[in-house]
Amino acid sequence: MLTTPTIAPAIRRILVAEDNLADAELIKEMLNRAFPQHLEACFVTRLDDTLAAIERNVFDILLLDLGLPDHQGVDKIDDISNRVPALPIVVLTGNEDDEVAAWALRSGAQDYLPKSQLSPELLSRGIRYAVERKEITQRLQEELERTAEQNELLACAARYDCLTGLPNRLMLQEVGERAIKQARRRKHSLALMFLDLNGFKLINDSYGHDVGDELLKGVASRLNSLVRQCDLLARLGGDEFVILTDILQDLCEVKSLTKRIEGAFDEPFRVGEIDVTCRPAIGIATYPECPDLPALLRYADRAMYKQKKYAALKPTEIPRGVPTQPLTRTVQYHP
C-alpha cells in the first residue's frame, strides 16, 4: 500500500503530451488545483513534438497519452527513457486495461492513470510518486553501476601487482594454464624464465624499502620494454619476476632474449639521487619437458637458485627430460 512521501519532490515544469483538446483543458485545470504554487505546464499533441521538447528542455515529469495521432501504444516509452533516463513518465489513457498498464510500467513508465478516474488529488499523488520512484530507481541504478565498477576494479586488483602494475601470481596461473593448453593443441613449445635480483636484500637494507620499491618499478619497466605484447611478464612478489613466452622455435631465441634482459641491467637504475646497480639471476624451464605450470615454475626457480649459488650471471636452462633427471643435469649457458 502506497503512503504519502515524507518530503514531496519539487514539481515545477511538466510536459503534457495530449492531443484531445478537452482532455488537455481538464488536465490543465487539475494541475492548477493540484499544484497551486507556480507551475509551468507545456502541452504538445504529437509524439514527434514530445521528443523534440524533451531534447530541448528540462522537465520534471512527462504526462503521456498513449493515443497520440502519430503513434499509439507503449513501445515508444523505451525510446523516451533512453533519451532522457532521469525523466519520470506517467501514462494517461482512456482505456482501463490492466495488461496495458503492466506493459507500460515494464516499458519504463512510473505510473498509469486512467483518464476516467482522474482528479486533482489522484493526479497530484500520481505525479509525486512517479517522481519519487524515478529518483529511487536512478539512485539504485547508480549504486548498481558503482558496485559493478568496484567489483571490476577489485577483480582487476586481484590479478595485478599494486606496486608495479604487472600481472601477479593469480594472473600468471590463469594465463599460463591457457597458454599450456593452447601449446598442447598446436604442439608448440613454451619457455618460462624466472628472474630475481642479486643483492636486492642488501639494497633494501642499505637504502631503505622506498628505494627498493622504486627499483622494482624500474626493473618492471625495463623488462616490459623487452617482451612482446603476446608474452606475459608477471611479478610474483618481492624481487621475483616471471616471463612466459612461446619464442621457442630453437634455443637461440631464448638465449637472445636472456642476453637482452641482461643488457637491460647494464645501466644503473636512477632512484631519486641514487644510482642503483643490480643484476638478475635467470632460470629457464621449457614446456613440454615440464608438463604443467607448477613444474615450469618449480624447475625454473631451481635453475635460477643454482645460478645464484655459483654466483654466475648467465641464464641457466633445464635441459630436455629434466623432470625425470637429477637437478645436477641443469646446463649453464655461456656466450
TrEMBL record:
<dbReference type="Pfam" id="PF00072">
    <property type="entry name" value="Response_reg"/>
</dbReference>
<feature type="domain" description="GGDEF">
    <location>
        <begin position="188"/>
        <end position="315"/>
    </location>
</feature>
<feature type="domain" description="Response regulatory">
    <location>
        <begin position="13"/>
        <end position="130"/>
    </location>
</feature>
<dbReference type="InterPro" id="IPR043128">
    <property type="entry name" value="Rev_trsase/Diguanyl_cyclase"/>
</dbReference>
<dbReference type="InterPro" id="IPR000160">
    <property type="entry name" value="GGDEF_dom"/>
</dbReference>
<dbReference type="InterPro" id="IPR029787">
    <property type="entry name" value="Nucleotide_cyclase"/>
</dbReference>
<dbReference type="InterPro" id="IPR001789">
    <property type="entry name" value="Sig_transdc_resp-reg_receiver"/>
</dbReference>
<feature type="modified residue" description="4-aspartylphosphate">
    <location>
        <position position="65"/>
    </location>
</feature>
<dbReference type="GO" id="GO:0000160">
    <property type="term" value="P:phosphorelay signal transduction system"/>
</dbReference>
<dbReference type="InterPro" id="IPR052163">
    <property type="entry name" value="DGC-Regulatory_Protein"/>
</dbReference>
<dbReference type="Pfam" id="PF00990">
    <property type="entry name" value="GGDEF"/>
</dbReference>
<keyword id="KW-0597">Phosphoprotein</keyword>
<protein>
    <recommendedName>
        <fullName>Diguanylate cyclase</fullName>
    </recommendedName>
</protein>
<dbReference type="InterPro" id="IPR011006">
    <property type="entry name" value="CheY-like_superfamily"/>
</dbReference>
